[in-house]
Predict the structure.
Amino acid sequence: KAGVTQTPRYLIKTRGQQVTLSCSPISGHRSVSWYQQTPGQGLQFLFEYFSETQRNKGNFPGRFSGRQFSNSRSEMNVSTLELGDSALYLCASSGGVREETEAFFGQGTRLTVV
Amino acid sequence: AQTVTQSQPEMSVQEAETVTLSCTYDTSESDYYLFWYKQPPSRQMILVIRQEAYKQQNATENRFSVNFQKAAKSFSLKISDSQLGDAAMYFCAYRSLLGNDMRFGAGTRLTVKP
């Protein structure tokens, strides 16, 4: 079955703009989590959506938001971009229930803010 | 809050030899999951092995095995018969039973020498 798909793969934005990233999970998966990966801070959890509801949230400012649609596809939005938002954004999908522990990752979206 | 520490930023191993990557974590929970993920230059995070904390037996997946010491909160990864394709960043990750947010260590860059 198809893996986790993230679009776009690369993105260049100007400081102050906003951006929307998309993640299509594996068919049947209801949980989508987002992570930010930077050389300085490593991999940090942004938020998790399960059945269209935000279930967990990391320690990021309100400029970072997300949503999940009825087909489990998820979008992440960053408003008023800052240079420090340049990062690889990874999404991971899983079944979302306790027994389904494995998270499958997409290839990420590389965001560059100039 | 749970924290994951990987104290080896870089490791090197000769092809066909064995290498062990270290990971320690801090948690007050009694039941949880631990993972080792591999991230090659392609950026795709790939699950290498997982361990359920309630299982005393160490997990094994072909050439990959873990040494899980729950009392010491230690979770090391042993790679036997190292291959050139094992070269990548390796991340140790912790996940609570509830929710689907993982906490990652800073990673260990593994180089395999021919």
Summary: Chain A touches chain B through 26 residues (CB under 8 Å). The mean pLDDT of chain A is 92.
